[in-house]
Amino acid sequence: MSSELSEPMRESENVELKKSLAELKQGLISMVAILNKHGAGELWFGVAPNGSVVGLDANEKTLRDVSQTIGSHIEPRIYPHIELVQLGGKSCLHITFSGQEMPYFAYGRTYMRVADEDRQLTARELENIILHKHKEAMRWDNEPCDALSLDGLDTAKIRRFVERAGLTWDTAENALDKFGLRQNGKLLNAAKLFFAAEPPLQLRCAVFATTSSSTIIDRHDFDGDILELIEEAQKYILKNIHIGMRLDGLYRVDVPEISMAALREAIINAFCHRDYRDPDYIHVAVFKNRVEIRNPGGLYDGLTMEEMRQGNVSRRRNPLIADLFRRIQMVEGWGRGMPLIFENAPSVQFRQIAGLFIASFERPSFVEEVTHVLDDAKEGRIEETPKKPQRNPKEKLLAIIKEQPELSVKVMADLCDMSIDSVQHHIKILKAAGVIHHVGSTKSGYWEILDMAYIKD
Prior knowledge:
The protein is an alpha+beta fold. The radius of gyration is 37 Å and the shape is extended. The protein is 37% helix and 23% strand. It has a 6-stranded mixed β-sheet, covered by helices on one side. The chain has a 5-stranded mixed β-sheet with strand order 1-5-6-3-2. A two-stranded antiparallel sheet has the order 4-7. α8 packs antiparallel against α9 and α9 (260-273) packs antiparallel against α12. The longest helix is centred in the first third of the chain and has 15 residues, at 24-38. The mean pLDDT is 86. A hairpin with a 3-residue loop joins β16 (282-286) and β17 (290-296). It has 4 domains: 2-133, Methyltransferase, Cobalt-precorrin-4 Transmethylase, Domain 2 (2-Layer Sandwich); 150-195, no CATH class; 201-364, 2-Layer Sandwich (Heat Shock Protein 90); 393-454, Arc Repressor Mutant, subunit A (Orthogonal Bundle), CATH 1.10.10.10. It has 16 helices and 21 strands.
């Protein structure tokens, strides 16, 4: 093959130039670095790194020797195209190669292309490549569920799903195969979530009396499949938040204080994107000022909060589950979930805490309630209850000693809501000041107040 160069060649992230076959080992390292970065590239022998053609003495045996060297020292095996090319009247060796089985190794080591250089990968970088390669096979929703058989599925659920997806029903087995829920005759975990006869999941819901979780006024745990629990979560929230109304012509329309479109999307996201390897549950928490939906598992695959807020970003921990939701129009395939939430509930807040992803929706009724109270106070419609002055620790102790002088330090600590060390510290100060002293033994004695001026009613 003959070719003329219109301009000098240059090294790049996917092109490597070598002056002679004496650099064959380094050339193979470059091939591996390019494969690990781009999956394809070119290697030239007989061309200097500055792009000038120097040529080399090569023949058919040279091609076979290079091919054998590549086969012996690059793993996994690749099958490059090797040919002699005439450049400017000089013979050069041109190798084109490709492969998608990263990571590739040359002489037992692995490399990555950075600009026009080959950098050896660290153990952590190699681990990340391997994890990324096997991510599809390692997904929880795509793993075989050894404990589940066709007998453990509810055929009626499968049929309803098929009809809801707008498909024609024939058999449960065919439906499962259509949805990609069987591999080598084994059911996958996603099939269990949607169609198991026995409830595969639990949802935990609670209502709290205030803005903290200190006092629970209602709690309910729901068992069911993934679609049933999404509905239960919605119903529980609706039952425990304020519902207003508006008129649509002659008809009354209920209007929840939080957009149900936004809440529903957040609930679906929680079940769709949660980490099912984590044994924790999805929680719905209704507080006085907000509703929180919490699911195990933070943002996936390096996705940031900022990227999530920008929308149109869809990195899915459980693509098979997401695809099943898409088939019945519960989610879109274009990452529109978050924009929909922001459109309907602009004040929503998202945060990640201790492996949990939390969607928090403000309750307008709480804001209105606080505003009314403040307005009433401002207008004088609420009489402020005088606060009783708080006694300091020494006054508390003296009051108790006056009423029950025989009490032990431990009992005093309980009555004053103080630690034993704190009570002993204040008693030591009062004794040093000559206010009190102890009469008799430690067990059967009693305290006596020497200076009554310290007692305040």
